Amino acid sequence: MAIRVYKRTSPGRRNSSVNLHSEVTKNTPEKTLLAPISKSGGRNHKGIITTRGRGGGAKRRYRKVDFKRNRKLDVPAKVVGIEYDPNRTSNIALLEFEDGDKAYIIAPKGLTDGDTVVSGSERAEPQVGNSMPLAAIPTGLNVHCIELVPGRGAEMCRSAGTYARLTNREAGWATLVLPSGEVRQVSVNCRATIGEVGNSDHALVRWGKAGRNRHRGKRPIVRGIAKSHHDHPMGGGEGRSKGNRAPASASGTPAKGGRTRKRGQYSDKRIIRRRRSKRYGQLSL
Fold first, then answer.
1. Domain with 52 in it
2. Which residues of the chain have pLDDT under 70?
3. Phi-psi category of residue 78: left, alpha or beta, with phi > 0 → left and psi -120 to 50 → alpha
4. Which residues have C-beta within 8 Å of that of residue 124, sequence separation ≥ 6?
């Protein structure tokens, strides 16, 4: 049982659950792969808050995760342990190479202590945890930690429980079905890791009380409708007024249903189908 629901002994426990992290096998991080994190509290270099709702939180250190997987090609590495990473939703796996060098990777589902993974070329076996170019991965497999540009490092499908499906290869481009339902093409020279990202139970956790969100560095945010008219576009009015406009942020940006992706990007022409919507329906992976 990866998610534990306790008895309702207090108002905070009544609506909360805890992730037991059953996949984690190693508790202490590797010191050589740690780096300090400086917090900004949502403020810029002038001390002005540019991102609301940030601040506080438990102190943590950054784990240097190898997203490129191109340092030691075709050199097997042994999995020393699966660790919890406070900086991301997924767990991380500590690898140790034959020469004693160590590295962190995103821990895929099913990877355990003692397993061997390879960051290989076309000769590597298509096993869970192995990183290869999309040109060498058989179609129909689930992949994660996918590069958008060869050599730039993994950018897609890095969070807990996510994966994309490799469906086709044609004329130097691989077709991927992403978790959002978007179908896009990526160069076959881009690297990807076989398997699904582990810790899929993260989405089932109910935080239950405000204190647990404060530990994550999230401060409370006042509703826009509760503010005055000069503090928020939806504020003001007598009683509970809706502001006579669509939901928006304090700067006037649409808050619900608005498109967040920048238009006119170079990669737009490689998107075969946009994310799932009412117009296109859902696309089953």
1. 22-202+261-273
2. 1, 243, 258, 276-285
3. beta
4. 74, 118, 130, 132, 136
Query: Which CATH number covers residue 269?
Result: 2.40.50.140
Backbone angles phi, psi at 200, to 5 degrees: -70, -15
Q: Specify if 118 maps to a domain.
A: yes
Q: Where are the beta strands (DSSP E) in 100-150?
A: 102-106, 116-118, 131-133, 142-144, 146-147
Position of tokens 């296109």? 280
User: Of all helices (H) and strands (E), which one includes residue 13?
Assistant: helix 11-14
This prediction has a pTM of 0.88
Domain assignment of residue 234, yes or no: no
- Nearest by Cα to 211 from 60, 57, 85, 89: 57
As given in the structure block, the two tokens for residue 26 are: 């190693």
> How many domains in the chain?
1
Cβ-Cβ contacts under 8 Å for 184 (sequence gap 6 or more) = 175, 176, 178, 267, 270, 271, 272
Tokens of residue 164, six digits = 């994309």
Tens digits of residue pLDDT in 115-125 = 999 998 777 78
